[in-house]
Amino acid sequence: MLSIYPIKAFQDNYIWCIQNNQSNDCVIVDPGDEKPVIDYITNNHLTLKAILITHHHYDHVDGVAPLLTYAEQLSGSKVDVFGPANNRIKAINKPLREGDHIALLGTEFMINEVPGHTLDHISYFSPQDPLHSAPWLFCGDTLFSAGCGRLFEGSPAQMLKSLKTLASYPPVTEVYCTHEYTLANLSFAQAVLPSDATIKDYTNACKIKRKSNQPTLPSTIATERHINPFLLCARDDLQSSVAQHAQTAVGDELDTFTHLRAWKDSF
Ligand SMILES: [Zn+2]
């Protein structure tokens, strides 16, 4: 069986480690810092087989080169580095595009291009199989629990389309995003939809987890479809709230999303 462990980095990043507890092989997702990763794989006697990258930001890639050096010195074996094609990350030796399928640790991952936060952002989806009972989604800084990434490079239309792609995965899919932003995102969600009981209840559940220093992740696609305001832009009550805040009429779902993202940027 495969399992996933969160390695904490920086202020609020999670570097996900996918590991096979029989073979002790592992795959690391978005290593922005090599130090906590080396500590974790050394302490758990793991062998690094591959690195997955979602996009080019430093807090997702700066640990890649030192990790490759570390792995090479230790085992002499080559580590595959998967990531978006056509970008500036030199260490990538397995560039990926929309619709690609890869096999790692005996399980399959499907690739989606999900521009918006950056133009090169990709996600990794692994369907349920005998090695893991729930589907997995590694979505970097595109979909956060109760939120979404800032639009540094892409347009609102690109981001909305990307979020819809991710939200269309099966409801039971476990969502592994890269930051512990959930409580801050939920306080925004409550400002947007103050009378939504589901968001209120979920906020309380996440507060309890954070009090004991537990991650609020993974979330699930089912949960996100109920509590993530950026996935609810077609809803009448959300559109009214956004219109009231922006003090203008809002049109369709994309117009609502655009105003909502701007509201969050100044929240
Ligand atoms: Zn980023």
TrEMBL record:
This is Hydroxyacylglutathione hydrolase. GO terms for molecular function: hydroxyacylglutathione hydrolase activity; metal ion binding. The keyword Kinase does not apply. It holds the Pfam family Lactamase_B. It is an enzyme of class 3 (hydrolase). Residues 12-179 form the Metallo-beta-lactamase domain. The gene is gloB. Keywords: Hydrolase, Metal-binding, Zinc. It comes from Alkalimarinus sediminis. Zn(2+) 2 binds at residues 59-60, 141, 179. Its EC number is 3.1.2.6. Binds 2 Zn(2+) ions per subunit. PANTHER family: HYDROXYACYLGLUTATHIONE HYDROLASE, HYDROXYACYLGLUTATHIONE HYDROLASE GLOB. Zn(2+) 1 binds at residues 55, 57, 117, 141. Belongs to the metallo-beta-lactamase superfamily. Glyoxalase II family. SUPFAM superfamilies: Metallo-hydrolase/oxidoreductase.
